[in-house]
C-alpha cells in the first residue's frame, strides 16, 4: 500500500527557484519542485533533517573508513585532459546496459533501510528515479513488495538480490521480480558477513530495528550469505530467465570467472566502503576488470562517485554505467522523490557541462587517454 506523504518544509530550505541556471543545457525535470542548486547543498539539508544516527548510518563505512576515503582520494588523483575547439552544442548521453537503452549512463545503487530516510522508502526512491528518467536498482533488503516499487516506476528497473534463506523462497521472489518488469537480477557477493560499521556500533544503534518500520521487513539471512559460493551463481543462472549480475567484484580473476559462469553484468564495488575496510578504491580496480571482461559483459562501477566529473572518469576507464548511492540518498532524505530527482538532475547537468568543457560529445566515445594521474 503506497502512502501519500509530503515532507515538511525545511526551515533553512532555499526560497523560490533560484534565477541562476543549473548549468549549460540543464534538462529540467518535469514537475520537480525542489529548489536545491548544488549537490553539497542537498547533503547539508539531509544532514540537518535526519536524526543523527540515520545520517551516520548512510554516511559511514566499516572500521577505520579507509576504503570509504580511498574511493574519493583515488578519484581525485585522476585528472581530465581537456580538448578545445570541438563543437559541443550537442552532447549525447545515451547508452545501453545489458541491451537496455538508457537516457544517461547513471543508475541509482541499491540501498536498504530507505524507510529511515523517508516514510515511503523504496517507493519514493523509485518515483524520484523515474522523474529523472534514471535506471533504478531496487535493494534486496527492501521492505516493500517488489510489485509496489514497480508500480511506482516508469524508468527501467533492475533487482539486487540477497539470499534471505532457502532457495525455494528466493525462486519464488525471482518469479515475482520477473513478473513485475525488472530487467536483470544482481546478486550482491560482498556481504558474506555484515561489515563492522563503527559509527552505528559506537552509537549502540541497530539499523535493523529501525528498518522494521517498512511494510515487509526482511534483511539478508547472515548465515546464508556466508555460505554463498560459485554453485549459487550456477543455480541462479538456471533459476531465472533474466540476465544476472554480480555486485562486489574487485579483481580481474573473479571477473573472468564470473563471465565464464555466464554472468552478464560485472559490478565493481566495495559496497561504498561499508564492508571490507582497507581494500582497493573501485576506480583503481576498474581497469583490470575491464581488461579481463574484454567486452563479454556489461560493467557497472560504484563507490564515492558524487560529481559529473567522477562519472566521466569511470566511463573513460571502461564502465558502461556508474551507480550512485549516497548522493541520491541525501536527495531522498532532504526532499523525498523531488530531492532524488533534483540530485540526479544536478548530476546530469554537471556531466553535460564537464563533457562540453573537455571537448567530448558522446559518452560512448570516452577512452582512458582522457585521463592522467596527478599526485
Ligand atoms: C544506506 C545504504 C544502504 C545500502 N544497502 C545496500 C543493499 O541493500 N544492497 C547492496 O547491494 N548494496 C547496498 N549499499 C551499497 C550501495 O549499493 C553502493 O554499493 C554504495 O553505496 C556506493 O557508494 P556511494 O554511496 O559512495 O555512491 C548500501 C549503501 C548505503 C549507503
**Count the strands?**
12
CATH architecture assignment: Alpha-Beta Barrel
Order of helices and strands: HHHEEEEHEHEHEHHHHEHEHEHEHE
CATH superfamily: Aldolase class I
CATH topology: TIM Barrel
Strand order of the largest sheet: 4-5-6-7-8-9-10-11
How far apart, in Å, are the first and last alpha carbons?
A: 52 Å
CATH C-level category:
Alpha Beta
Q: What about the largest sheet?
A: 8 strands, parallel, barrel
Topology of this structure?
Elements: H1 39-49, H2 52-59, H3 66-76, E1 78-80, E2 95-97, E3 100-102, E4 106-108, H4 121-131, E5 135-138, H5 146-152, E6 157-161, H6 167-179, E7 185-188, H7 198-202, H8 207-211, H9 222-227, H10 230-239, E8 244-249, H11 252-260, E9 265-268, H12 282-293, E10 298-301, H13 308-316, E11 321-324, H14 326-357, E12 371-373
Parallel strand pairs: 4-5, 4-11, 5-6, 6-7, 7-8, 8-9, 9-10, 10-11
Antiparallel strand pairs: 1-12, 2-3
Helix pairs in contact: 1-14, 4-5, 4-14, 11-12, 13-14
Residues 58, 109-113, 139, 141, 160, 188, 247, 269, 271-272, 274, 302-305, 324-326, 329 line the site of flavin mononucleotide (FMN).
Question: In a few lines, what is going on in this structure?
Answer:
The chain has 375 residues and is an alpha/beta fold.
What are its keywords?
375 residues; alpha/beta; TIM Barrel; eight-stranded parallel beta barrel; two-stranded antiparallel sheet; 14 helices; 12 strands; 12% strand; globular; disordered N terminus; binds flavin mononucleotide
Amino acid at each position: 500500500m503506497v502512502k501519500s506523504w509530503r515532507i515538511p518544509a525545511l526551515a533553512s530550505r532555499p526560497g523560490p527557484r533560484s534565477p541562476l541556471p543549473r548549468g549549460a543545457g540543464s534538462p529540467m525535470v518535469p514537475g520537480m519542485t525542489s529548489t536545491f542548486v548544488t549537490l553539497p547543498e542537498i547533503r547539508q539539508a539531509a544532514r540537518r533533517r535526519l536524526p543523527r544516527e540515520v545520517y551516520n548510518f548512510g554516511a559511514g563505512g566499516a572500521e577505520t573508513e579507509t576504503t570509504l576515503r580511498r574511493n574519493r582520494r583515488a578519484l581525485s588523483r585522476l585528472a581530465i585532459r581537456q580538448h578545445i575547439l570541438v563543437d559541443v552544442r550537442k552532447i549525447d548521453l545515451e547508452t545501453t546496459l545489458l541491451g537496455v537503452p538508457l537516457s544517461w549512463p547513471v543508475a541509482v545503487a541499491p540501498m536498504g533501510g530507505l524507510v529511515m530516510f523517508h516514510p515511503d522508502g523504496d517507493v519514493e526512491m523509485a518515483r524520484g528515479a523515474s522523474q529523472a528518467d534514471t535506471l533504478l536498482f531496487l535493494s534486496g533488503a527492501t521492505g516493500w513488495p517488489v510489485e509496489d516499487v514497480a508500480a511506482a516506476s516508469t524508468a527501467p528497473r533492475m533487482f539486487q538480490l540477497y539470499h534471505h534463506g532457502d532457495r525455494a523462497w528466493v525462486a519464488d521472489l525471482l518469479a515475482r521480480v520477473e513478473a513485475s518488469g525488472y530487467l536483470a537480477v544482481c546478486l550482491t557477493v560482498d556481504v558474506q558477513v555484515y561489515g563492522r560499521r563503527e559509527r552505528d556500533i559506537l552509537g549502540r544503534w541497530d539499523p535493523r530495528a529501525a528498518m522494521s518500520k517498512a511494510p515487509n521487513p526482511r534483511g539478508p539471512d547472515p548465515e546464508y550469505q556466508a555460505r554463498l559460493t560459485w554453485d549459487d551463481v550456477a543455480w541462479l543462472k538456471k533459476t531465472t530467465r533474466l540476465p544476472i549480475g554480480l555486485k562486489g567484484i574487485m579483481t580481474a580473476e573473479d571477473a573472468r570467472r564470473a563471465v565464464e559462469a555466464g554472468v552478464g553484468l560485472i559490478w565493481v564495488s566495495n559496497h561504498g566502503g561499508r564492508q571490507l575496510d582497507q581494500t582497493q578504491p573501485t576506480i583503481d580496480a576498474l581497469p583490470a576488470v575491464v581488461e579481463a571482461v574484454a567486452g563479454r559483459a556489461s560493467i557497472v562501477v560504484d563507490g564515492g562517485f558524487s560529481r559529473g566529473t567522477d562519472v566521466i572518469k569511470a566511463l573513460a576507464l571502461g564502465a558502461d554505467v556508474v551507480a550512485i548511492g549516497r548522493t541520491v540518498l541525501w536527495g531522498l532524505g532532504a526532499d523525498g522523490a523531488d530531492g532524488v530527482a533534483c540530485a540526479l538532475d544536478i548530476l546530469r547537468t554537471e556531466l553535460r557541462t564537464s563533457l562540453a568543457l573537455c571537448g567530448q560529445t558522446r559518452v560512448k566515445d570516452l577512452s582512458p587517454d582522457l585521463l592522467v594521474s596527478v599526485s
